[in-house]
Amino acid sequence: MNQENLVPLRYPLSAKGALEPPAEWAELRERCPVARVRLPSGDEASLLTRYDDVKMVLSDPRCTRRLDAEDAARISESESGGVFNAPMATALYSAGQQRWRMMLTKWFTAKRVNALKPGIVAMTDRLVDEMIESGHPADIKARVGFPLPVWVICDLLGVPDTDRDRFARWSDMMLNLTRYGQTEIDAAEAEFGAYLTAHLDMKRADPGEDLLSSLLTATDADGAGLTDIQLVATGQALLVAGHETTANMIGKMLAMLLSERRRWERLVADPSLVRTAVEEALRFDANPGFGMPRYVEQNIEVAETLLPRGTTVVCSMAAANRDENTFAGADEMTLDRSPNPHLAFGSGPHSCLGQSLARTELQTVLEVLLRRLPTLELAVPAEELRRVEGLVVGGLRELPVRW
């Protein structure tokens, strides 16, 4: 019954608990894999929830990120339509996605990320030291989950992590769905743009060994570099994506593992499971946020449904990651699951550029906490955990723990 739901579902879908999936996912995958949804903006889109469909659309060159097209659905209820429709997204799209990625790829290779790991471990230990010294209960998201990825991405970009509170405020504004008004968003975008413009001017005068300094003189195969607007947009995109999603995922991963004590205890007993446990947390995440929108440039058929040119499609990677046709026991968190071809980082040529870095941060946090605080536990019942609301990204407002 593809798109036969006469009344569009209100999207994002709601769930009973902060760690639970929306009840509709299973039924949509079975009976309505291409469903009509109404976005916070009031515009309609088509929601995909099956693994094969989501993977196909994310990899299909006919489905693009051109969310600034006149007939593309606006995502956010704000006038600008949100981060996917924003000038930052337009600037990066105009740079040519693959050209832009090629200019950044060397900064996110496994070799370079491995070289960063000792510093990430040291910073995690330092943050855990400070949390222990302050005593418990403690909000581990605020004490470890947020400052660690901010420090990592700021170090990579060559910007001071002492400005992290400003980055967090600007990021929240840019990731707005329903929380902020257009005036607040415009002011944040202007402040963020001015900050990065001034920072890039300093880098031109005194370049360092960081990513942004490198991009000032980087060129593609044709000898062309990025424009000033594209450089600012790159800085914004990397600062937002480089800390917001990882900070939230650290909190959610720990909540998943601590909410079922046997999961945490199994990892304490066998830390060699850290790598597969991180992958399973990424797959099992039922609170990932909005999903990935795509704009259909040419007519395509998905799950025996024609999606005409101009359709905006929302790919729910999280719903796809619970598809029983791909993952046996999909609604169970299996710490040693292998293989685990989840779609948490997307798929195809537009998959997450920083996934190697995100994996390293998640694995490091888990390794350090298992070593330092094996008695770690939730300080509140899992049912009392609260979701981040009104933003494109999913997460927990706080994660109170004790040890």
UniProtKB/TrEMBL annotation:
Lineage: superkingdom: Bacteria
PROSITE patterns on file: CYTOCHROME_P450 (PS00086)
Pfam families registered for this protein in UniProt: p450
Residues in the signal sequence: none
Keywords carried by this UniProt record: Heme, Iron, Metal-binding, Monooxygenase, Oxidoreductase
The keyword Metal-binding appears for this protein: yes
GO molecular function ontology, one term from the record: heme binding
Similarity-based family: Belongs to the cytochrome P450 family.
Protein name: Cytochrome P450
Organism: Streptomyces scopuliridis RB72
